[in-house]
Every structure is written in structure tokens, then in C-alpha cells.
């Protein structure tokens, strides 16, 4: 059987190619790009805040893209045109297949199956007079089919070929068709074909790839300019101990706000008049600073707009308000980049690559700035101003002599009548809106557990060991604390400071009175009185201590006692047999009791071993789960002054307040919907002693929701025969001498070295 390669003369295979290619594009494009209108759920609409700020924000977001309707119409038009072309191609291919695969000589001649030779010849003569090419009604293609049909029914060999191969000519050569029309390779069209190839593959494709690459290399993974990141590294390294206002100055100097680096920035002639007028309203702006790039005009303008946002100063809607929306919308991403930069500088300082170590206050000031920008509020202002309709005039009611309401948690704990009395100047609808927003704010139960996970004794911390702090966060709505609800138990909660405010940093910050204990915490023993109490976290051991078991008496002592009882029985005249029987039964009972007690001890130890294994398995599973991709969806934030929708994110980390250093990199929690577990690891100090460290939780969306807890580590001296920690040893490693740490100084401070402030 012969083989031959040929281009598609009739266009059939080319249509197959077009049909497959078009279907591969249209099906996913329709699924992903077809414009869909979000169905508004009335229940969800009722949950949204109805304050003027939120209503104006939602209206601005709806009108932010006026071309969206035109864009959706064009997308629909292109997709519909593609499907119409696909249907037409499918119809043409189906007709082509029908003609090629349905060769029936009886049907072509128009005679019934089993007709005689005379009938076949008669039908052929009749149709040939009509279809012959020399006639006016002739059709060459149809006449060829007619001739093949007549031959298949009259010639014996042709008839056998048709019955066996479906073709009167017999088996044809195997044909490998190229799914391209033949005109592509024709000589007169070669210039146009080569020109098209050159335009697509040598001009268009390199331009598209080069443009994408040029734009992508200018940004980090969080879409922050690399030049901005380099600027942060320089300025934070230059000032290790940075105040909050200087952090704002650096934020305003970000190159995202410079027209030379960002084409989206709009510069107007009116800025020469409006910006100086705005600067006059803002104290402590430090606009006369001569440091580059803090003295550039774009930096001063961005800094003034950030200060105006934090002071809630209204701006011109046509000019500076548009700039405010753009600048404030960029700030959270830039602040997260600042936190990452300071953390990297701290790591470099630990490795002796950077001489100056940034203090813990620097990175915390960066974290403080994020909720300030989101809420449009200075940190020294009352957190109650984050609620709708609450302004400075209402503060005199909250801070009266009879009551000192300083936090949102305290306000939530009040009874309904007291809350309504405090906001008596609001209408019923406004008050209901305030409670709706307050009830959706976060109330986080912050629990910690300390252990050395890979050691035989997880509760004992030795010098140089890897300490794992498991942070468990359970989020509930603030409505859990409402005093007029069913929850009546008390709980202790601290905000913006250490739990025991005496003698520690943050003591001047407001303490929170005993809050209503949520249902997921243990009930408090006693008379149920509401007490103002602070507690320190206890390091809970992973393995429960084994219960003490009374030692069984010695068998020799049992025999002595038995003989003494027999002698005593003889003296009293008792029957010896009865005494022996009773003694034997007592001995058997004692032996059974001993055996059962031993079995119970073994069972308890086995159960404890099983619990330990299960606990290790659970923690390993949690560590593997933490390595998976993080979600960016948690809970919506009430932030009418922030131009876009915002999700709740959190930072958690461990620091040493006395040496003002960071022990672990801040872990960004982006998916705290109900419960989240985070493992923070750091190396224990090299010197034995008692150390106090602080585990912190900070919000990037709300002011007044930060928490921190102290942990005390009693670091023991490492065993002398172990030169390194067990989890760092390998079987094939050579033995090394004992480590000489006598000349090294510990980077931590013990409780005995530095007294409490």
C-alpha cells in the first residue's frame, strides 16, 4: 500500500483544525470571561453598614470604572461571534463528512436495491444525458460519481472492490494530509506568508514578552517597586530607632507617588495653591526637612495628604481627594513591605552583616501605622471613633466621672440600656447601625503554648534548644461580649499592652475591665463576681505527669504477718483450718490487687505514650498544613475612609522587651475566619537562667485590638556530653569536641540581670 503526503486541496482537514482550535479557545474563555452580575442577597445587604461614609464609598466603587459596561458588551459580542463561527464550521464539516462517507451506487442511480442489469443501464443513460459535462445541465463532479456508481454495479471486479473496501477503485494509497490549504505554499503567495510569519514571531511576540518582562522586573511579589524597597532598606538602616512620624515621612517618600516612576500619578497646576494651604493646617509635618528624597515635592504632597487623612480633614473632591484615594489605597501594601524590610535588616544584623540592629519599636511603629491608615485615625485618639456616627462630641459621655469607657470591648460589655443612654443623641436607625458594626468587629481569644517539640522532654528548655511557641487564635464577633445577651460569664482580656500593666512597657495604656467570658472558655469558679484581674500565661506541659502508685508490700513481710496471725489465732482457740483458708483467700486477694494495680499502671503509661504519639502526629500535620498556600480572605473591615474593601489581617511575633530585639519574624495571618494555629520558633539563649519574652498579636485593620502575653523560660544547662542539639545531629557526622561558648555573650537578658522598669 503506497503512502503520500499532500496539502489539503479541498479544505476538509483545515476546517477540522480550525474547529478544534476555536473550541479550545472559546470554551474556557466563555467560562472565565463571560460577564456575570453578582446577585444581591437581601440578607447580606441588611448586614452592610448604612452610615454616610460607607454608602458614599460603595457608590464610588460602583462608579469607579465607567467603562465597565462597554467592556462587558464587547466581551459578550466577541464570545457570541466566536460561537456563531464555531457552529458554522461544525455544520460545514458535518456536510463534508456526509458526502465523503455515504457512497451508495443504488442511491446515486436512483434505483431500488437488487435491481436488474437492464434497470441499471436504463437509469445510467437517463442520468448521463442530464449530468454529462457537454450538456447545459451538466455537472462534472456529479457525472464522475454517476460513472463510479454504474461501474460498481456492472463490473464484477469493481463490484467486489465496493463491497470489500467501499470504493469501486479498490484500496487507495494511505494519505497523510497537512491541515493547511495549498495556497499557503504556492509561489505567488510566498512573500505574504513569510511577511506574516515575520510580523508575528519576530516583531509582535518579542515586543509582548519584552514589555511583560520589563514591567515585572520592576516590582516585588506584592507589586511594590523594587526601587521603593531599596529606599526603605537605606532609610531604615540609617535610623535604627525610628519614631512613628518618621515612618510616615518614609511612607510618603515611596516612589509609587512620584510621576517619574509611576505614570498613574496626576500632577495639576492647582497643587501649587492647594498643597501649601493644606500644609498650613497640619502641625509637625516637618516639610522643611532637607533630607533626600524626603524634601522632594511629591514626597511632601503625599505626606501632607496622609496627615490630612489621619486628621480627617476634608479635601477638594475634584483634586486632592482623588489623590488621597489613590495614595491611601497603596499604603497597606507599602507598609507591609516596610515590615518585611525591617525584618530583613534585623536578620542581617544577627548575622553580623549589618552593624546597626533596628529596635523592636521601629518595626512595631510600622505595624501601628497600618490600622491608622485604614481607619483614618491617629493612634492616640479613642478607638471608639472607629464606630459610625461617633465623633469628638460623644467622647465627653464616654469619659465621664461615673464611667471611663476607653475601648470598644468595654463599650460592648455594657448593658443595652447603658449603651443606648450613652448614644441618646442618635436616632434608633443610627444606633442600630452602630451596634451592627460593633457586633461584627473581631474578638480574638489569644492562647499560647511553649515546648521543645523534637526533644524527649518537651517541657524542659535547654541552652541552645529550638523553642516552639504555638499560638492559637480563635475569632468571634464582638457581639459575644454584649452585656444584654445570654453570655454572662466573665473573662480577662487585655488590649494594647501587657496583661499586668505594672512595671512594664505599655503600662500607661488603658486596661480593659473584666469582659463577659465567652462560651468556649472555662467557667470561673466561685460566686460569679465580676473582678478586674490580670493573669500571666502558664506554660502548659504537653505530657501529663504520671500518677503516683502506692508500692506493694514485700512478700517476706506478708509471710511474717501471716505467721503472726496464725499464732494469735491458736492462742484465741480458733480453728486453724478456717484461719488458713481465710489467710489463703486474703493472700490471693492481695496478689490479685497487686496484679491489677500493676496492670493499671502499665495501661496508663501505654495510654500516655499513645497520647504523646498522637500529639506529635497532630503537630506535624499542623506544620505541614501551614506550608500550604495561604488564603487572602477572612472578614470584611469597616473602614469608610479607606477607598477600597479591606480584609482583616494580623501579625504575630515574639520579642524581648528588655533588650528591645525581635526573636521571630512577624508572621502575617491572612485567613483568620474562625480559628488559626501558628508555630513560632526561636533558639533558646545560650546561658542558663530565667528569661521573659513577649508574644504579640497586632491587627493591621483596627486600632485597639492588639494583645500581648509574657512567657517565662527557665533555661537549663545543656548536658555536657551533647555538643549540639539532638535535632542537628546526623549519624554520619564526625565527633566534635565540646563547644566553647565561654567567650560568647548572650544576646538575651535574664530577669536577674536587668531589674523591672
TrEMBL record:
PROSITE patterns: DNAJ_2 (PS50076). Residues 104-166 form the J domain. SMART domains: DnaJ (SM00271), Sec63 (SM00973). GO terms for biological process: post-translational protein targeting to endoplasmic reticulum membrane; SRP-dependent cotranslational protein targeting to membrane. It comes from the Eukaryota. It is a multi-pass membrane protein. Keywords: Chaperone, Endoplasmic reticulum, Membrane, Protein transport, Transmembrane, Transmembrane helix, Transport. Residues 547-573 have a biased composition (Basic and acidic residues). This is J domain-containing protein. It comes from Exocentrus adspersus. The lineage of its organism: Eukaryota, Metazoa, Ecdysozoa, Arthropoda, Hexapoda.
Amino acid at each position: 500500500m503506497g503512502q503520500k503526503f499532500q496539502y489539503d486541496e479541498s479544505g476538509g482537514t483545515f476546517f477540522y483544525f480550525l474547529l478544534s482550535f476555536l473550541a479550545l479557545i472559546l470554551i474556557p474563555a466563555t467560562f472565565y470571561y463571560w460577564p456575570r452580575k453578582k446577585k444581591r442577597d437581601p440578607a447580606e445587604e441588611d448586614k452592610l453598614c448604612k452610615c454616610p461614609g460607607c454608602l458614599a464609598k460603595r457608590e464610588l466603587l460602583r462608579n469607579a470604572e465607567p467603562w465597565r459596561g462597554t467592556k462587558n458588551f464587547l466581551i459578550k459580542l466577541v464570545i457570541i461571534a466566536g460561537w456563531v463561527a464555531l457552529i458554522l464550521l461544525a455544520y460545514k464539516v458535518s456536510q463534508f463528512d456526509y458526502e465523503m462517507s455515504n457512497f451508495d451506487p443504488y442511491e446515486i442511480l436512483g434505483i431500488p436495491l437488487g435491481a436488474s442489469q437492464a434497470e441499471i443501464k436504463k437509469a445510467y443513460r437517463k442520468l448521463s444525458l442530464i449530468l454529462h459535462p457537454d450538456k447545459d445541465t451538466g455537472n462534472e463532479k456529479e457525472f464522475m460519481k454517476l460513472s463510479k456508481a454504474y461501474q460498481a454495479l456492472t463490473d464484477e471486479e469493481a463490484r467486489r472492490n465496493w463491497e470489500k473496501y467501499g470504493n469501486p477503485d479498490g484500496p487507495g494509497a494511505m494519505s497523510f494530509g497537512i491541515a493547511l490549504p495549498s495556497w499557503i505554499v504556492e509561489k505567488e503567495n510566498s512573500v505574504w506568508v513569510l511577511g506574516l510569519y515575520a510580523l508575528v514571531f519576530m516583531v509582535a511576540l518579542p515586543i509582548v514578552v519584552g514589555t511583560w518582562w520589563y514591567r515585572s522586573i520592576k516590582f516585588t511579589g506584592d507589586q511594590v517597586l523594587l526601587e521603593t524597597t531599596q529606599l526603605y532598606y537605606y532609610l531604615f538602616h540609617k535610623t535604627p530607632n525610628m519614631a512613628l512620624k518618621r515612618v510616615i515621612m518614609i511612607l510618603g517618600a515611596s516612589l509609587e507617588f512620584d510621576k517619574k516612576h509611576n505614570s498613574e500619578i496626576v500632577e495639576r497646576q492647582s497643587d501649587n495653591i492647594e498643597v501649601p494651604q493644606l500644609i498650613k493646617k497640619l502641625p509637625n509635618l516637618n516639610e522643611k526637612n532637607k533630607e533626600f528624597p524626603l524634601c522632594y515635592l511629591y514626597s511632601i504632597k503625599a505626606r501632607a495628604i496622609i496627615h490630612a487623612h489621619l486628621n480627617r480633614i476634608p479635601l477638594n473632591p475634584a483634586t486632592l481627594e482623588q489623590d488621597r484615594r489613590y495614595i491611601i489605597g497603596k499604603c497597606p501594601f507599602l507598609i507591609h513591605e516596610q515590615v518585611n524590610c525591617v525584618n530583613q535588616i534585623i536578620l542581617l544584623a544577627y548575622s553580623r552583616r549589618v552593624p546597626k540592629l533596628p529596635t523592636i519599636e521601629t518595626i512595631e511603629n510600622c505595624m501601628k501605622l497600618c490600622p491608622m491608615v485604614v481607619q483614618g485615625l491617629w493612634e492616640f485618639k479613642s478607638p471608639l471613633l472607629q464606630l459610625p456616627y461617633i465623633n469628638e462630641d460623644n467622647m465627653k459621655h464616654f469619659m465621664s466621672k461615673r464611667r471611663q469607657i476607653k475601648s470598644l470591648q468595654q463599650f460592648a460589655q455594657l448593658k443595652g440600656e447603658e449603651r443606648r443612654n450613652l448614644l441618646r443623641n442618635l436616632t434608633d436607625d443610627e444606633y442600630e447601625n452602630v451596634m451592627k458594626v460593633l457586633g461584627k468587629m473581631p474578638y480574638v481569644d489569644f492562647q499560647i503554648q511553649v515546648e521543645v517539640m523534637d526533644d524527649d522532654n518537651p517541657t524542659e528548655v535547654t541552652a541552645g534548644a529550638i523553642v516552639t511557641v504555638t499560638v492559637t487564635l480563635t475569632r468571634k464577633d464582638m457581639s459575644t461580649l454584649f452585656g444584654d445577651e445570654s453570655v454572662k460569664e466573665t473573662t480577662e482580656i487585655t488590649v494594647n499592652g501587657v496583661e499586668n500593666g505594672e512595671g512594664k512597657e505599655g503600662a500607661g495604656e488603658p486596661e480593659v475591665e473584666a469582659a463577659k467570658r465567652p462560651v468556649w472558655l472555662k467557667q470561673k469558679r466561685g460566686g460569679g463576681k465580676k473582678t478586674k484581674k490580670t493573669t500571666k500565661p502558664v506554660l502548659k506541659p504537653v505530657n501529663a505527669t504520671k500518677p503516683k502508685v502506692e508500692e506493694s508490700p514485700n512478700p517476706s513481710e506478708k509471710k511474717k504477718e501471716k505467721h503472726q496471725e496464725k499464732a494469735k489465732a491458736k492462742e484465741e482457740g480458733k480453728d486453724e483450718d478456717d484461719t488458713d483458708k481465710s489467710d489463703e483467700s486474703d493472700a490471693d486477694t492481695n496478689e490479685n490487687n497487686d496484679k491489677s494495680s500493676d496492670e493499671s499502671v502499665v495501661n496508663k503509661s501505654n495510654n500516655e505514650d499513645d497520647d504523646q504519639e498522637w500529639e506529635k502526629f497532630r503537630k506535624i500535620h499542623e506544620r505541614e498544613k501551614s506550608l500550604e498556600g495561604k488564603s487572602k480572605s477572612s472578614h470584611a473591615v469597616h473602614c469608610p475612609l479607606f477607598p477600597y474593601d479591606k480584609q482583616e489581617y494580623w501579625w504575630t511575633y515574639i520579642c524581648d522587651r528588655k533588650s528591645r530585639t525581635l526573636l521571630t519574624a512577624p508572621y502575617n495571618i491572612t485567613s483568620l475566619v474562625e480559628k488559626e494555629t501558628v508555630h513560632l520558633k526561636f533558639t533558646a539563649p545560650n546561658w542558663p537562667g530565667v528569661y521573659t519574652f513577649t508574644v504579640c498579636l497586632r491587627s493591621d485593620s483596627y486600632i485597639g485590638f492588639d494583645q500581648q502575653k509574657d512567657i517565662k523560660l527557665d533555661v537549663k544547662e545543656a548536658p555536657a556530653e551533647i555538643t549540639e542539639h539532638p535535632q542537628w545531629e546526623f549519624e554520619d557526622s564526625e565527633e566534635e569536641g565540646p563547644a566553647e561558648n565561654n567567650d560568647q555573650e548572650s544576646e538575651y537578658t535574664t530577669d536577674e540581670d536587668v531589674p523591672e522598669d
